[in-house]
Design a protein that fits this description.
single chain; about 0% strand; mainly alpha; about 75% helix; 4 helices
């Protein structure tokens, strides 16, 4: 893969991640409150939204690590690439949620 192919791949992966974010945000939040579900841990005193999202990323990374080690996924239709795109989305959500607070 050369540099341009890498950049093209980056664009493709990020476009796919954005599609996933659109779908999941519709399921989890409201149009005028896209962080609704992510701020739920705050409402019950667990942690702030950013910390909650980092915990979700740790869970995704642990799953990916296990899949890489075992070369097996038990959940049909959920390859490790899905977890990687979810992590991309959590990073964007952290940036956006913290910007929303400022």
């Amino acid at each position: 893969m050369n540099r341009q192919e890498l950049f093209d791949f980056h664009n493709k992966v990020c476009a796919e991640a954005l599609d996933i974010m659109r779908d999941k945000n519709t399921d989890y939040a409201k149009k005028d409150s896209p962080f609704l579900n992510l701020r739920a841990p705050e409402a019950i005193g667990l942690c702030d939204a950013s910390t909650g999202m980092l915990v979700k990323c740790i869970d995704k990374l642990a799953r990916m690590n296990n899949i890489f080690k075992t070369r097996h996924t038990a959940v049909a239709g959920e390859p490790w690439e899905q977890d990687a795109k979810d992590i991309i989305n959590y990073m964007v959500l952290i940036l956006a949620e913290r910007k929303d607070r400022d």
